[in-house]
Design goal:
This protein is α+β, with helices and mostly antiparallel strands. Helix content is about 50%, strand content about 20%. The chain is globular. It starts with 12 loop residues before the first strand and ends with a helix.
Length: about 100
């Protein structure tokens, strides 16, 4: 397994898995910080004002991934599916909270 970032001490992690056909890839994400979520939220809306869930999830992947199967980066379909999962888990709830207030 590869890593994108160094695991910070005393942070929770969550394992995500993506399955395409028979292939299942795993990724371990450490809990995003306020700064990670903030950057992902910026990417979510982008310059055009249109939702960019894949881009927001990619920010979380790049900044919070402590361990992942290399095939995630080698296979675009797997990476896209993972980024959508990460956006749904971490970025969309923050976006909904902002809309409420």
């Amino acid at each position: 397994m590869s890593s994108k970032t160094i695991k910070l001490p005393n942070t929770k992690t969550q394992t995500f898995s993506v399955k395409i056909g028979e292939k299942e890839c795993k990724c371990v994400i450490q809990e995003p910080t306020f700064e990670n979520i903030s950057v992902a939220m910026t990417e979510l809306m982008g310059m055009t004002g249109k939702l960019n869930l894949i881009g927001a999830g990619k920010v979380i992947f790049e900044s919070c991934c402590v361990e992942y199967d290399q095939e995630i980066e080698d296979n675009v379909k797997i990476l896209v599916k993972l980024c959508l999962q990460l956006a749904a888990e971490y970025v969309s709830p923050a976006d909904e909270e902002i809309k409420k207030n």
